[in-house]
Amino acid sequence: MAVLQSFVSVHPDSHFPIQNLPYGVFKPQSASPPRPGVAIGDFVLDLSEISSAGLFDGPLLKNSDCFLQPNLNKFVSLGRPAWKEARATLQKLLSATEPTLRDNVVLRQKSLLPVSTVELLLPVVVGDYTDFFTSLHHTKNCGLIFRGPQTPVLDNWYRLPVAYHGRASSVVISGTDIVRPRGQAHPIGSSTPYFGPSLKLDFELEMATIVGPGNELGKPVDINNAEDHIFGLVVMNDWSARDIQAWEYIPLGPFLGKSFGTTISPWIVTLEALEPFACEAPKQDPPPLPYLTEKVSRIYDISLEAHIKPAGHEDSGVVSRTNLKHLYWTLTQQLAHHTINGCNLRPGDLLGTGTVSGPEPESRACLLELTWNGQNAVPVNGLNKKFLEDGDEVILTGYCKGNGYTIGFGTCSGKIVPAAP
Ligand SMILES: O=C(O)/C=C/C(=O)CC(=O)CC(=O)O
Ligand SMILES: [Ca+2]
Ligand SMILES: [Mg+2]
């Protein structure tokens, strides 16, 4: 079957072919109001223009103002039938054989803008952010490093997707500088804690679910309907100060070692675009309780990479290659578990998967694991790196290789700048 093509020319390696159409929010100029868009090749299609031109003409979206909003929260709240209708409309409008937009010079000039000329913003207002801990490999390694060899993975971990409540106010868009946090730490062998800029600043390569329709307070989401609440995924960096974390986290879990910044990629890739890359989730032993047992248990085959561009360098070097399919708990189990006590999720909520470490040493997805808490160095462009230094930039990316096209997430990047004086 011929691969669907757009009239917009798309490089074969582009993350954004017509098969993808991820959603973001942008400003054409710094003074213009934010509006939703989809990425196509090196362009962004302005959905407020497409909506104002009356081209969302399907039954669910024809009278909707969801694309005239400064964020995607309203659109993601509408649910999968509306998402499918929007995707069908946009795939038709952008296809090589459809004249409506292709041959309308005025509308094309208004609505198709080179992405290099626009400012990308957070795609949703994130009301709440939760971070799970669902890679067995990451959990085992952190357990060995922080708690020693007795019981690196506790029994509860195999029975439920462990998580902590993160901080939504410091979720930032790719490209935002990250200020090195200051805090307390307690180096081994020292009797009093230290206060100052973190000496063990790290990244965590993760993905995150963007919640679509929420659930009412007191009404849990059934595991077999959980997918209806997932709009799509982004790549996420849960920046982590390991020295602050190690000293503060017992007994209540991560706090200031993580709440100083969390970066997400600008484009939300929908589950519809990821469908060809769904694969069977790993077998779970012991079997989960009924409320976590799915009729079909799936995850996605998404290659993930972490690169570091050291301060003063022109090029970046890869430090981790992993895959979302290594996770033990599925995205739907994470979401259903989050609501099982009656907790309500709301459109635009962000659910991090946790660090996506795989089984091989090169698939360890943070410096804590790669350097074994600073005991070893990782080579980056001829340098030996332990933790992040001021001026270092971390660039995360994710993609799925299709037959003749790539579905990608673009990049999720951030540069470390010196701590406040
Ligand atoms: O094992 C621990 O004490 C915690 C390790 C983490 O940093 C957990 C975390 O943020 C969740 C994750 O990314 O998997
Ligand atoms: Ca994390
Ligand atoms: Mg964080």
TrEMBL record:
GO molecular function, one term: metal ion binding
Domain called Fumarylacetoacetase-like C-terminal: residue spans: 137-415
SUPFAM superfamilies in UniProt: FAH, Fumarylacetoacetate hydrolase, FAH, N-terminal domain
Catalytic residues as annotated in Swiss-Prot or TrEMBL: H138
Positions that bind substrate: F133, R147, Q245, Y249, T355
UniProt keywords, alphabetically: Calcium, Hydrolase, Magnesium, Metal-binding, Phenylalanine catabolism, Tyrosine catabolism
Domain Fumarylacetoacetase N-terminal: 19-123
Cofactor: Mg(2+); Ca(2+)
Residues that coordinate or bind Mg(2+): D238, K258, T262
Reaction catalyzed: 4-fumarylacetoacetate + H2O = acetoacetate + fumarate + H(+)
Entry EC no(s): 3.7.1.2
Pathway as given in its UniProt record: Amino-acid degradation; L-phenylalanine degradation; acetoacetate and fumarate from L-phenylalanine: step 6/6
Residues where Ca(2+) binds: D131, E204, E206, D238
GO biological process terms, semicolon-separated: homogentisate catabolic process; L-phenylalanine catabolic process; L-tyrosine catabolic process
Record field: transmembrane: none
PANTHER family: FUMARYLACETOACETASE (PTHR43069:SF2)
Function: Converts fumarylacetoacetate to acetoacetate and fumarate. Involved in tyrosine catabolic pathway. Catalyzes the final step in the tyrosine degradation pathway.
Family: Belongs to the FAH family.
Name of the protein in question: Fumarylacetoacetase
